[in-house]
Design brief:
about 45% helix; elongated; mainly alpha; 3-stranded antiparallel beta sheet; hpI Integrase, Chain A
Length: about 210
């Protein structure tokens, strides 16, 4: 254009897509507590799916659908994600938080067995059961990837160790983890999240452990 070879900028003829930048969405502490309690009270077999998704950050699609109870070690407070289950095809070790253990212990106390696959099958039935639990919990909107995003956000707010979070979550990029989840929630909210424990079915107030 400067040398008069062309009359207009050819770039002006291109279509450009606007990139939308937004923070990841997470479930609020009260919603997480309600989902876990609703699963415990109304669909016990769904409880581990919510526990491992919300409190361990295990990917619901792919990983949780393949994971079985042999990979869960309550005594060591750890879940081992085998390479054949892991999305990245690498073995990883996910710590079980004290409140995750509390929910799983209550699951066992109510007579459920630690056997076979963790996630109910088929997937269509799992989705229907998840929706029923969601309705019982009073959670209007289901956030896609919300369980994993919630785990990462609340974990990082409490522990402030992005490198360990990469190992826990099976992610590959510490910088992306930091950019996505740093200051996504407050430290106070994180302390409440990690203190959500089971309460009795007839109780009207969700119980939180002392922090």
């Amino acid at each position: 254009m400067k040398r008069k070879y062309i009359r207009e900028n050819p770039i002006a003829q291109l279509d450009f897509a606007e990139l939308e930048t937004r923070e990841v969405e997470v479930f609020k502490v009260e919603q997480v507590a309600s989902l876990l309690q609703a699963a415990l009270d109304y669909d016990l077999q769904m409880l581990p799916w919510f526990v491992f998704g919300l409190l361990c950050g295990i990917r619901p699609d792919g990983e949780l659908s393949k994971l079985d109870w042999d990979s869960v070690h309550l005594a060591e407070r750890q879940v081992v994600i085998p390479p054949e289950v892991s999305k990245t095809r690498r073995r990883r070790f996910v710590d079980l938080s004290p409140n995750a253990v509390a929910w799983l212990e209550e699951y066992r106390r109510r007579g459920a067995a630690f056997s076979r696959k963790i996630a109910p099958r088929p997937k269509s039935a799992l989705i229907q059961r998840r929706k029923r639990v969601q309705t019982k919990a009073g959670v209007d909107k289901w956030i896609q990837q919300g369980m994993r995003h919630s785990f990462c956000s609340y974990w990082l707010a409490k522990h402030e160790d992005v490198n360990k979070l990469v190992l826990q979550s099976g992610h590959t990029d510490a910088q992306t983890m930091w950019d996505s989840y740093h200051r996504g929630v407050t430290r106070v909210e994180a302390e409440k999240f990690w203190s959500i424990v089971p309460t009795k079915a007839d109780a009207k107030i969700i119980k939180f452990a002392s922090v």
